[in-house]
Design goal:
By secondary structure, this protein is of the alpha/beta class. The chain is 34% helix and 23% strand. Strands 3, 4, 7, 8, 9, 10, 11 and 12 form an 8-stranded mixed sheet that branches.
């Protein structure tokens, strides 16, 4: 029975390791940090998990927060110019979404993995070591990579290469924000400037979780929202954020955050994501192939709310493919065949949706206008966050009507 090594203990690597371990497969997980360091570290991103993802986690025994995390019932969308709404509607999800601080999630999942007898290595091995150790395993799966290791995975020539991030980002987890009265997330488009996205979530150490508000500022590079310095303290990042909200949002929205405070000293993060779509099979210096998954293969801006969901589906599909071939071989051809259902069924749709949300084409802009007067269309648009493949129906000539079926 083939021994699997997984690099990366995030939304893809951890569920994949758990699924294989529960099925009795020998698996080694390589994590950059121990559970305590993850829990006490800086927030990692924002994440909204939609029902299909939550179902996958529950089925894998990982849905610890299903009954306690706040439910996100839909989206309150607005376009705001000079502090005034020029467009606005609400769309409800067919089933609620949820969000839990990845520090909480990863710390719990790492602890559970160890308690279940999983083999864990702590470190961030260089490519030479990954290559050397790959010879000891039947399959190496790379779900986290940067620099030299990421370069082992060629860009997918079918996708346009991005030369820079679409947005500069600021993430804050907040106490004291006034909840949306209808349990909706908010998505505010500031034309030419960027977006403000906010929704309820859960944060805190496992067993001590509490509700919070998760806030994401998406700033067009060089624009008025692009004011964050990665060297700023978390308190300074909060101060800059509140000033932006007060300046650019309508008063009723900005008022929700006036009394907000950070949930903890490491509850603020700034940065950017350069989108990338790569081929799912990488080649190490020795010529050995490795299978890539999650963000390594399909990396997206968080504004489309797809990254965590994309990674979860990758883990489920890869686990099924591995378990269907107990003794291998896990060669290059098998790797491509294992990745194809995830890429064509989930990842590529998610990447297209994210690009469209950040830079809406004319058809989507028309749809967003029409949704003000058509609740069914607004609901259908909101649900496309959960099912990005539905976007193709909005691209039809009659995109201003709700998709049927």
């Amino acid at each position: 029975m083939g021994h699997i090594r997984i690099l990366g203990a995030g939304e893809c690597g951890l569920p994949l390791a758990h699924r294989l371990l529960r099925a009795g497969r020998p698996v080694t997980l390589v994590a950059a940090r121990e559970a305590a360091a993850v829990l006490n570290g800086t927030v990692t991103s924002t994440q909204v998990k939609f029902p299909a993802t939550l179902d996958l986690e529950t089925a894998a025994g990982l849905g610890h927060w299903r009954s306690m995390a706040p439910e996100i019932q839909g989206i309150r969308l607005a376009a705001v110019l000079d502090g005034r709404r020029i467009l606005g509607w609400t769309g409800r999800f067919s089933r609620p979404a949820q969000s839990v601080d990845q520090r909480t999630v990863f710390a719990r999942w790492l602890t559970d993995y160890i308690d279940a007898g999983g083999d864990l290595e702590i470190g961030d091995p260089p490519v030479a070591e990954v290559d050397r150790r790959a010879a000891e395993y039947d399959l190496t799966v790379v779900t986290r990579a940067s620099g030299e290791l990421a370069a082992c995975f060629p860009a997918d020539p079918a996708w346009p290469a991005a030369d820079r991030p679409a947005r500069q980002l600021a993430v804050l987890y907040l106490d004291g924000a006034i909840p949306d009265p209808d349990d909706l997330g908010i998505y505010v488009s500031l034309p030419g400037l960027g977006e403000v996205i906010s929704y309820p979530g859960l944060t805190g150490a496992p067993g001590e979780e509490r509700r919070c508000e998760m806030l994401l500022i998406e700033a067009r590079p060089g624009g008025p929202l692009d004011v964050f310095d990665p060297h700023d303290s978390s308190s300074e990042q909060l101060r800059r954020t509140l000033r932006l909200l007060d300046t650019y949002l309508p008063a009723d929205l900005a008022d929700r955050y006036r009394a907000a405070e950070l949930t903890d000293a490491r509850a603020a993060l700034t940065g950017a994501v350069k989108p990338a779509v790569r081929l799912p099979v990488g080649t190490l210096p020795s010529g050995r192939p490795v299978l890539g998954g999650g963000d390594v293969v399909c990396r997206m801006d968080p504004g489309g709310a797809q990254g965590a969901n994309n990674a979860a589906h990758c883990a489920e599909i890869y686990a099924a493919a591995i378990l269907a071939r107990p003794d291998g071989p896990f060669d290059r051809s098998w790797m491509f065949s294992a990745a194809t259902p995830w890429l064509t069924g989930t990842a590529h749709h998610a990447a297209r949706w994210t690009a469209a949300v950040l830079d809406p084409p004319a058809g989507m802009q028309q749809l967003m206008q029409s949704a003000q007067h058509d609740p069914a269309l607004a609901n259908a648009f909101a649900d496309t966050f959960a099912r990005p493949a539905d976007m193709v129906r909005f691209a039809a000539p009659n995109a201003g009507t709700a998709p049927q079926g």
